[in-house]
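1st attempt posting a full record on here, be nice pls
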Amino acid sequence: MAEEIPNLVVLDADVAKATQTCDFQAVYPDRFFNCGVQEQNMFSVAAGLALEGFIPFASTFGVFATCRAGDQLRNSIAYPKLNVKIGATHCGITTGGDGASHQANEDIAITRSLPNMTILVPGDYEEAKQVTRFAAFYKGPVYLRFGRDAYPIIPLIHSPIAVGKGKLLQEGLDITLISTGIMVSEVLIAAELLLTKGISSRVIHMPCVKPLDQDIVIKAARETRGIVTAEEHSIIGGLGEAVAGTVSQFQPTWVERIGIADVFGESGQAGELMDKYGLRAKNIVDAVFRILEK
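the predicted structure (as tokens):
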């Protein structure tokens, strides 16, 4: 995009090799700024660059972007509604071996509470490219949430990105499954498993967590018997609570939330942690039956 957008710049907090922004640095060294291990300062610099007409992508691990630099994220970027893009990587439990200190399982909750902030959570590599390009042309602060591990490519989700819009992947009348990020692959597997049991699933993917597509959620709540949400994030403050808040206000129905319980993560292989923390298709299926039994 740098060829197309001459005022696009990239900021790094000394993790360029891990985030792969070093690839940008190699081609455009004069438009790349390593601010060192000082994320707060990086966000302040990004704010200043935005005020001067640049489009800064400030990238670091999600846990540092939201927790360590929370003050600057709130007061220097979100509050004045500056055109800064936060490229947050290594988010979620699949950060794996780095352990709890580096696993951002609460970052959506933090950024979702900030006025003016748009939150985009891609489900695979191709959609990650889509949301990055979309963010570059969108006016205002954007939080881009990326993982670390390798994830399945899901062609079904590659329709255009729009703020405040979900993607209907599959029609169904018995239950609704709503995912964001990498959980889209587990949700689609769960839908296949449910179909073998005679249960029809409506599947919705939410690459935009804020603003939430309330219309698609309310319609699903009205037309199916309940909703199961799935996210690689804490069940507190994320997609699940956004969906539950919407339906409780406009169309009450049963909601089960699949995600990280109110606990910190631990070190381990990504797949092992997905299993241990209940982020698999079988956990989604179990949640569906809990609703149907009610």
